[in-house]
Structures are given as structure tokens and as C-alpha cells.
Amino acid sequence: MRRKILFIINSLTGGGAERVMATLLRHSEDWRTQYDIALALLDDEPQAYAIPDWITIHQLDCGFSLIRSASRLRALVREIRPDATLSFLTRANVANAYAMRGRNRPWIISERVNTSAHLGADAAGKVGRMLVRLSYPKASAVIAVSHGVADDLVRNFEVPAARVTAIANPVDVDFIARRAAEPAPIPIDGPYVAAMGRLVANKNFALLIDAFAASGIPGKLVIGGEGPLRGALDAQIARLGLQRRVILAGFLENPFPLVAGARYFVLPSNAEGFPNGLVEAMATGVAVVSTNCLSGPSEILAEAAREDISGVTRSKHGILVPCNDPAAMAGAMRALEDETLRTHYAMAARERAGAYAPHNAARRYWRVIEQALDGPGPGPAL
Questions:
Q1: I want to staple 87 with a disulfide (CB 3.0 to 4.6 A). Which of 92, 265, 268, 357 is the partner?
Q2: What pTM was computed for the model?
């Protein structure tokens, strides 16, 4: 009888972690003959990403509530009795810990963000930190999306280093190339710079808009993504008189034609777990500039730890700039207006993106799952 593996995530609505989960499951076909693979979705949200029909989907309706997520996932675990679980995102990870309590089966969590940067200093952030400290160290294994995220979990949340594995997110270069060849989702006249991501504080598109205004470069800035800061960004664009030059394009089901057509791509974030959008842009064959934020950009672009990079750095695969420095970002954008430099970095970006092939990531995820199945049991869960 095949052992059952249950994957868990909040939903498959548009987002980086959700796209990674879908990619990982699509590339798990080699394991379907050995394991019965299922997916639990905690929230009843529209699905932006397709899941293979050989995977059983358990749709819960937890309404974004941690308490309901934990109790309803525990009921599902009691019903289907998985041999191991693997969850993405903090709420799903904490719910996974509670659901597997007392079952003496391995449970694995994958941290998608730099936890210290993601959880704020307000009351909700303090509760989140407490729950992470109570649950994460007891997991059978912890998968971090970058070495920076792994180091943060070990240093600040008491996760045993021996249980942590860093696995970069998979990026399906062939899939992106096919999607990039499709018609652009919106027409853009003339040259433009592209950026993508949720319109939230950590993505810091306000910095990018200020840098674009200061750079003096021609053309437009197109930002794909939706989020709660849209109104504030619209007001900033109006204040700078950039209504005709900065386009907030909203959520794009297929952003890749737009990215592929850009002169270059910019990631202005204050913090990332692993910047999916950066590597996906590189896969389309465009040059990139990124802040040297926690966590991931330095590992991707310079193949080095963040603390080993300082100032504006023309690294091996792209340009890195300090966080929250509009002048430095503006200077890097001006530098990429040079066609020779831009062409050099476009070629370097495409080559580097190949290192994140999905079959490599899937193999590493399944190695962690199989080691957990064969190893000692987890510590007591929540």
C-alpha cells in the first residue's frame, strides 16, 4: 500500500509561494507510483495555478483564521491519516504542527519568508513569533528557501541547525519561455522598466517610484501586482507628476510577456524569503537590478552571502544596491540604460536562472520527505 503524503498551503490564489507549490507538485510525477499525494487548501479562494488531476485536493474553508485552520486541518488529518505532511507559509506551518500533534508521524514545514523581517513588532507579530518558536523547532525537518532564511530560523527561533535544509524555489524556465511568447496582457507604448509583486510595504515600490523619478531615464515604469498600498502608490505617482509614465498594471495572470519586453527588471524589496519574481524575470532573459535585502538576492546575483556585499555592486548575474536608497537605485537604473551592459546582464541572467530547474528542487524536497519518513520521529507538536 502506498504511503500518503499531504501537502498543505493556505490557498492557490496568485502569489509566489502558491506558484512554487503548484510547480513542485507538477514536477512530483516521478513519485506518484510510490506515494499517494494529496493537497490541503486551508482557504476557499479562486485558484490561480493548476494542479495535476492525479493529486487529490481537500478544499477546506478556514476563512484566513489560524484557529479554524488548525482545527479543520486536524480533523482532515484524523480522517485521511497521512504518513507525512509538508506545509508552506507560516499559518499553514503552525496549523500543521497542531494537526500532527500526537500522531507520531513526520511533519515538515517550509518557511517562505525571512521570519524576523516578516513578523512585525505589533501585537500580531509578537504572537506570530511566539507560535513560530513553539512549533518550528519541533518539526521533523524545516525547509528554508534561502540560506539567509535558514540562518534566521537557527539564530532567532531556536530551530536546530541539523534539521534545516535550504532549497531554492524552483523556476520552470521552459514554462516561462512558453508563457513569455504569448501576447502581452496590456499594451505598453515605447521602452519601459518592469517590476512585479504584491503592493505591500516590504516590496517597497514607493522606493522604486522615487528612484525612477530621480533617474531621469526615458520611457515608463510598469509595476504588476495588486495589494493594499495601491491607493498610496497612486497618490505618490500623482504627487510626482508621473501619471503618464508609471503604470500600476494590477494582478496579471501571465506577467511574463510584459517582463520579457522590458528593458530590464527591478526588485526594490526590503525583505524577501526567496525572490521568485527576480529569478522568473531572469528566466525571460532580461537584465535585473535588486536591493541587497534579506534574503536571497545576493545568493542569486552574486552567489554570496548578503553581508559580503556592500554598496552598489555589479555582481556576476545582476546589479545589487543597498535597501532604502533611492539615489543608489536611480544610479543602477541609469547604468542599465547602457546597451552593452544591459545585454551582458541579460545573458548572465538567463544562464543563472537555469540553476533553479524544477526537477532539481523537486528531487531535493522529496529527499527531505523520504529522510523524514525513514528517520526518528518528530518532537511533540503544539
A1: 92
A2: 0.75
